[in-house]
Write a structure and sequence with these properties.
Porin, mainly beta, 22 strands, 19-stranded mixed β-barrel, about 50% strand
């Protein structure tokens, strides 16, 4: 049974997802024969299950890219996932390789299943769009007695996208993106007001078997980040490095390797300048209802500390998603997400500490509306 993908944005505060590529891909995705499809993001996640879109869901689903899909079609789909990531940025670049090879990697799925959408505050998001290519999203979050939020506008014109976000601290973030200046190349320029040192230029190039990425700060003494990935549809290897031109010091270096099959994925990441080793595994047991389990193990090489988190995801019905997780700290988390009307979602999260029985449970709610 094939799904009919629908595209909708669910943005949180400081979301940096490039929605322009979702618009580019919408017609292509609508023609794609697929059993299930997931489009990943750290700040925005789009999940297709049956005839319903679950925003922020975490079921590892797989697109079936047939021979009619050109390289550019696949590249546009990859860029629809091109979300800003910090610690897991090397895994995104590894994911690009496997997408262009026609296989969905699930590097992010484990992190997504275990951590994404577990919210213990109060969040509200309202999104709307117009036929002229203008998208508007308002997001608000209440944390204890404090309220923070932002308003984001995005306008797409030909190959250029302008994204402007104004937050509750009166800071204005602007990103200008130009797609396909050269084949396979995406260029973006970002800056924040009033921070005059925040400007940066980002270049992303994706080919069938490798990807390159560079980020350069637009200051007199810029920070420079470089990343590269090579691989096939099953095996990918990548590394990234950051360099401070002022102190001539290496600010970060990470490397990773991943192996992927149709029903499972495993990855190993060396991060924090070689001080942290992370291993993750995700397994799809039932493609029909998306029953999935995931585990992540972290080892600190200097202190020899170990951490682990295990979790599961299961679709109760076409409108309800249930997730659970447990960590070595003794905390148990539960999440339930329900589409109470088309394109509108309510998510409830709860967490209980088994080691501190007297401590109250943490409960949060998030509501997403799109008329």
């Amino acid at each position: 049974m094939y799904a009919r993908p629908l595209l909708v944005s669910f943005l949180y505060a400081n979301c940096k997802a490039d929605l322009s590529y979702l618009a580019i891909c919408s017609r292509q995705l609508a023609m794609l024969p697929l059993t299930m499809l997931i489009v990943y993001g750290i700040n925005m996640h789009l999940l297709f299950f049956s005839d319903r879109l679950v925003t922020g869901g975490l079921l590892p689903l797989y697109p079936v890219m047939d021979k009619t899909w050109t390289y550019k079609h696949k590249l546009n789909l990859v860029r629809a996932l091109s979300l800003s990531i910090t610690e897991h940025s090397i895994l995104y670049r590894m994911a690009v390789i496997s997408y262009l090879s026609g296989i969905v990697v699930k590097y992010f799925i484990c992190f997504d299943l275990l951590y994404k959408d577990y919210n213990f505050d109060q969040k509200f998001s309202l999104s709307t769009s117009s036929g002229s290519g203008l998208n508007l999203t308002a997001t608000g979050v209440k944390i204890n007695e404090d309220f923070i939020g932002d308003i984001r506008t995005q306008h797409k014109s030909s190959r250029t996208t302008i994204d402007v976000t104004v937050d509750s601290d009166s800071k204005v973030s602007t990103t200008v993106t130009v797609d396909e200046a050269l084949t396979g190349l995406k260029t973006s320029f970002a800056f924040k007001v009033p921070d005059h040192k925040s400007g940066k230029l980002d270049l992303q190039y994706a080919h069938n078997r490798f990807s390159l990425n560079s980020t350069i700060g637009l200051t007199s003494a810029p920070l420079v980040e470089l990343a590269a990935t090579v691989g096939t549809s099953e095996l990918s290897i990548g590394a990234e490095v950051g360099f401070d031109s002022t102190s001539a010091a290496v600010t970060k270096y990470n490397s990773g390797i991943g192996y992927n099959k149709s029903d499972f994925s495993a990855s190993l990441l060396l991060a924090d300048k070689g001080e942290t080793l992370k291993a993750s595994y995700v397994h799809l047991f039932n493609p029909t209802n998306g029953a999935t389990v995931a585990a992540e193990v972290t080892h600190k090489l200097k202190t020899r500390e170990n951490y682990f988190t295990v979790g599961s995801s299961h679709a109760l019905d076409p409108s309800t998603l249930l997730k659970m997780r447990f960590s070595n700290s003794g905390k148990v988390g539960l999440l339930c997400q329900h589409e109470w009307r088309p394109k509108s979602l309510v998510t409830l999260s709860a967490e209980y500490d088994l080691k501190v029985v007297s401590a109250p449970s943490r409960i949060g709610m998030a509501i997403s509306l799109k008329p």
